[in-house]
User: Fold this.
Amino acid sequence: MKKLAVFMVLAPPLLGTVLFGYILVRGPRMTVQHHVREFQMVLPAPAPGTVSVTPRPDRAPGEAEAAALVNPVPATPVAITQGRVYYGYYCAFCHGDTGAGDGPVGNSYVPRPADLRLPRIAAYGDGQLLRAMLTGTGHEPVLERVVPPGHRWPLVRFLRSLGSPR
Ligand code: HEC
Assistant:
């Protein structure tokens, strides 16, 4: 009689524990459900013969193309002033107001943003500089998607006017 009483007291919690454990280990979990991570989703390829109706004139030039490009914006004070404003929009927080690579956001970067006054950068051709500033290392998200075409050449003009570090 006593044994039966002990059994009746102990059995339900024991059973409950076993059931709970089973559900915990084998039971329905999130993994069972279908889920797509947006950043891992591979878009289906367009059908063969598809032609894009929106060509991308705003893409940065390729390496070969860049070598031949010359800045169409003349080196006027107006263009440089415009470039300075655009620099404030897109670049200064990383490359710093003077181009030294010491902007408030840039300070946390590894590698640090380039010092835009270096001879290495002055040695770039116009197109190469344009390409470097739109697609270069450290420029995520790629600036070709951020800087509109009309702002680009004045920016290059402005970069040219930065001078060299003291
Ligand atoms: C999010 C921060 C960030 C922003 C915004 C940014 N840059 Fe940079 N930039 C970097 C980093 C980081 C590097 C890489 C430095 C290195 O590789 O040593 C770099 C490198 C460069 C270089 C040198 C590329 C080379 O080939 O050496 C140029 C030129 C440049 N940036 C221009 C610009 C211009 C112009 C803008 C604005 C349109 C801009 N950057 C905006 C972070 C930034």
In short: The mean pLDDT is 86.
